[in-house]
Write a structure and sequence with these properties.
This protein is of the alpha/beta class and about 260 residues long. It folds into 2 domains: about 180 residues, 3-Layer(aba) Sandwich (Rossmann fold); about 80 residues, Putative phosphatase, domain 2 (DNA polymerase, domain 1, Orthogonal Bundle), CATH 1.10.150. It is about 45% helix and about 10% strand. It is built from 9 helices and 7 strands. It has a 7-stranded mixed beta sheet. The longest helix has 26 residues. The two termini are about 25 Å apart. The protein binds xylulose-1,5-bisphosphate and magnesium ion.
């Protein structure tokens, strides 16, 4: 049965990536680096998951002449970026994406466990939750974030960490993601994935997701269906997820029975 929902953060819980981009630019400015990551360049750099890894990739590929000096400076750049990101989230009171708060509340009310599995640094998760939920009332039972996992997405590590923390099997959960690397990570962990395309993953292939939509939808504000399983009224709700998950379980049981009867 369906026992847990596991959410990615950036691009899935909220449209955060442009604030990450702005935060990187603030950190560059503070340190007197005449770098500017515009949206087009950032979309390219986002193929590298993890802010520290993304920065290292930029330095190695775009600033090779100053490699040693900049690599020594990189931890300070990323630390300042994380502070700047937190400030931007609070200043903008960054909201959750459509349907996220509704589905999370439905899951809580039904006793379904809730997890986060994200490449981003833990302070970034805490800041986003702090502007969207009352103090001490975050709905997530487990938050698996950033360097807690040995390998970043598309490796399965962070989703495996969330599953272990929730004490559920991959077959008892559904993952929510916005990016190709995130889908690959969840699938490698054995999870079915529902994809909600985000601003910075507009060009991503969402292969591997059992359903792809523009967002989770709200009553009266239906999402756009992109691929796979469709949702009545353009809204992904808990009842629909439970129906889909039970049908998948019944289908797997029938296939297994057929296999053993041969
Ligand atoms: C998205 C990421 C993160 C953020 C930046 O994570 O790749 O690296 O872009 O955050 P996810 P950090 O989609 O898995 O939530 O600088 O803290 O890495
Ligand atoms: Mg994401």
């Amino acid at each position: 049965m369906l026992r847990a929902l596991i959410f990615d953060v950036d691009g899935t819980l909220a449209e955060t990536e442009d604030l990450h981009r702005q935060a990187f630019n603030r950190a560059f400015g503070e340190l007197g680096l005449a770098w500017h990551w515009d949206a087009a360049l950032y979309a390219e750099l986002l193929t590298v998951m993890g802010g520290k890894e993304r920065l290292a990739h930029y330095i190695a590929t775009r600033r090779p002449a100053e490699l040693a000096a900049l690599q020594a400076l990189a931890p300070e750049i990323h630390a300042r970026k994380t502070v700047a990101y937190g400030d931007l989230v609070v200043e903008s009171r960054l909201p959750l994406r459509p349907g996220v708060a509704r589905l999370v509340a439905e899951a809580r009310a039904a006793g379904i466990r809730l997890g986060v599995a994200t490449t981003t640094s833990r302070p970034n998760v805490d800041r986003l939750l702090s502007v969207n939920f009352p103090p001490g009332a975050t709905p997530f039972d487990v938050i698996a974030a950033g360097d807690a996992a040995e390998r970043k997405k598309p490796a399965p590590d962070i989703f495996l960490l969330a599953l272990a923390g929730l004490d559920v099997a991959a077959t008892e959960a559904v993952a929510f993601e916005d990016s190709a690397a995130g889908i690959a990570s969840a699938r490698a962990a054995g999870l079915p994935v529902l994809a909600t395309r985000s601003r910075y993953t507009d060009s991503h292939r969402l292969d591997g997701a059992f359903s792809a939509v523009s967002d989770l939808g709200e009553p009266g504000h239906p999402h756009r269906h992109l691929a796979g399983v469709e949702w009545p009224g353009g809204v992904v709700d808990l009842a629909g997820l439970i129906r889909w998950h039970e049908a998948l379980r019944d289908q797997s049981a029938a296939l297994q029975a057929m296999g053993t009867s041969r």
